[in-house]
Structures are given as structure tokens and as C-alpha cells.
Amino acid sequence: MKKLLVLVLLICSNSIFSQKRITDTISSKKLNENREITIGLPPSYAKNSKQSYPILLLLDGDFLFDPFQGALSYGYYWDDLPEVIIVGISQNKNNERETDCATEATTGLPDEKGEKFFEFIGMELIPYIQKNFRTAPFKIVAGLDTTAGFLNCYLYKDNPVFDAYISMSPELPTGMEEQIPDRLAAIQKPIFYYHSTAEGDVKKMRTRIMAMDEEIKKINNPKLNYRFEDFKGASHYSMVLNSIPSALYQIFAVYQPISITEFQEKIATLPSGYVDYLANKYDVLEKSLGLKVQIRLNDFKAIEAAIIKNQAYNEFDLLSQLARKNYPKAMLADYEMAQMYEKKGDNARAVKSYLAAFQKEEIGDLTKDMMMERAEALKVNLPKKGKKGKEEPIVEETPPAETPADTPPAETPAEDKKP
């Protein structure tokens, strides 16, 4: 443990911060032995001292750590996936994965060392990670064949340790294809469940996996977020590289930036409540994954486009309040108010708001030059001092059926970003 804490201190305090992987040994009273674990810290762990991160626990950490870390690193780059703390358990010595996952032949429940390993994870390893690292409440567990079947045993608890399960080609213990669907139907906490097989999978395992899928599909439980995949042309081992990104994107779908599809199908079609949609999106992210994330600037732009498209200009006021909360020093909030006044024909207030934005920090493509240019352009139409007269307000028309040019630019949605 001392070695781990020294390494963490070094990572968080000096130039070796780029090191993201730690190998440690944890002494287990449950197992009466020492177990090696590998911990992958998020890229931002050292600099974001107030940020907490979900835990991704990998059984079969010897060979699953690298593919999971690779998929997550790619997702981090595009801001499609949140950063997580990866914990891989070494099970490659002395046939440990088989003895760790031992189950009773008639009940399918953890037995002998399997029972001790089950308790080691929930009562020693997870608390150890939570004590020594900044962890969010959300926890994921993943495994392949033997370990994938074993991880399902945590669902037998009334309050499962894990919130998300990635079960790749599980070798199911006795009765599990009937018992797991029953547990998922009765579960009272939100659960993400992913499992997969492949066309070239082990036949006896594949048959039971398919049977379990058929039973789970019958479940009507709003707390369950379920996905099953059967990969054509893949083998028992190659399907892992298909399953990993698919499972991660299922679990973290709510994290992803607003895409063109989401904009067109879920936001632009709303009669109102565009700002509420944005606030709720990030509220769900915090409540379901334990992640408090600053609203992305591109997501603000998407809501701006929806407001303009549907001529719901009063919502700019709410968008401004949200912007001030997320970017208090930036010009975004005053810019949103300026848009509202300009669209409603109140050029005098629009000019004041653009000039107020000019005094704040630039953000994204919003610059001081842009704010001044907008203000100067509107001043031309203001009544001259000492002369009577008033501005002609803009007449609001029924929104056109076709998507106007105000639809978010192609670079806004996540899936359209190009390197």
C-alpha cells in the first residue's frame, strides 16, 4: 500500500504526471493472500483535484486492461466517453481465474475460493480504491467467459455492488439463464446490463447465452438499460474487441455531446422547453453516473439553434441564466441575452448586452471584436438623440417546415467530428 501511495503522490505532484498506470499488491484477509492489481488513472486526474471518477473493475485484468484502456482513450479524445479509474485484477497465475470463479454445482452460487473472491472484491478491493482515490459512486464490472459468468453473481444481491455489467460470452453457472432475468426484472436500482456472443462462439455457451437473452427481452423494468449483441463472423476471442466499445457507448450514452440526430429527432421537434432539455441532460448525467460536468459550449450552440429555428426567443433568457452558472466569467450569458433582444427587435437593449459581453472573457468563437461589430451594426438603426421615433419590432412568423440555416453546424455533433 505504501508503494501505491508514493506513486500517486508523485503522479499528482511533478513531471511524471504523464504516467497513468500503477501496479500494486493488495493484502487480502478474505483470500489469505496477496493479489496484484493494475490501476489506470484518468489523464486529468492530477490537474483536476476536485473531480471524481467512476470505477471500471476488470476481471481478467491481465488481458482486458489494454483493450479497455485503448477504447476509453479514443473516447476521451473526442469527449464521447468520460474519464474513469480502471482497476484490473491479475488472474493469470496458477489458474486463478478458475478457482476465483468457483461456483457450487447445483445452485450456481459462489463456492469455496469463489465465495472468498466474491467477498474480496466487494468488501476489500472496492473500499480500498474508494479510500485511496477520488471515486464517483458509479461502478462497472467486466469479464470474459468464466469471469463474465461469475460477475453476474453480484446481481443476486438486493442492492448490487455494481451499477453496470459487461458480460462478454459468459460461461453461465447452473441456472443462471433463468435466475438473472428474474433478478433484472425485480431490481429496484438503475442497472446497465450488456452481454454478447459471436457466431463462432463455443456452441454450448452460445446456446445458453441466447436463451438468457430471450428471457431478458421479455422484461418490462424501466430501471433496466439492456443491450445484447451477437457478432456475425467473429470468434470467441475477436468478439471482445467488438464488445468493449459497444458496451462503453451504451453505458455512457448520456455523456455524449448533442449530435445531429439528437438535435433533429429530440430537440428541434419540441414545441418548447429547449433549455430544460439541456439542463435535464446534464442533471441525468450527474444523478445516474455521479459525474458533475460543465455544459459543453457546443451544446449551448445546439440549443441556440433550436430556439432560433422555432422562434422561441424568450428562452434565450433561461439559456443566459444557465450560461452564467456554467461560465460566470465568460461573455456567453450576455451574448445570449443580446440575441434575445435582437431577435425581438429591441435593438437598444441588444446593444447594451453586446457591450456588456465585450467586457467579459472570450469563449469559443465568441470574441470581443464580434461583440463590438454586432453592437455597432445595431446602433445604426437606433433613433437619433433629440428625435422622436421608435424601432419597428420584428414580426414573428410561423416556423418553416424545413430546417433553416440555423441548424447547428456540422462540427457541433460528436459523430461528425473529424481529426
Summarize the entry for a quick read.
The protein is of the alpha/beta class.
Give an overview of the whole structure.
The chain has 419 residues and is α/β, with parallel strands linked by helices. It folds into two domains: 254 residues, Alpha/Beta hydrolase fold, catalytic domain (Rossmann fold, 3-Layer(aba) Sandwich); 157 residues, Tetratricopeptide repeat domain (Serine Threonine Protein Phosphatase 5, Tetratricopeptide repeat). It contains 15 helices and eight strands. The chain has an eight-stranded mixed β-sheet, sandwiched between helices. α7 links the parallel β7 and β8. α6 runs parallel beside α7, α11 packs antiparallel against α12 and α14 runs antiparallel to α15. Keywords: Hydrolase. This is Alpha/beta hydrolase. It comes from Flavobacterium silvisoli. InterPro entries: AB_hydrolase_fold, Esterase-like, Mycobacterial_A85_antigen, TPR-like_helical_dom_sf.
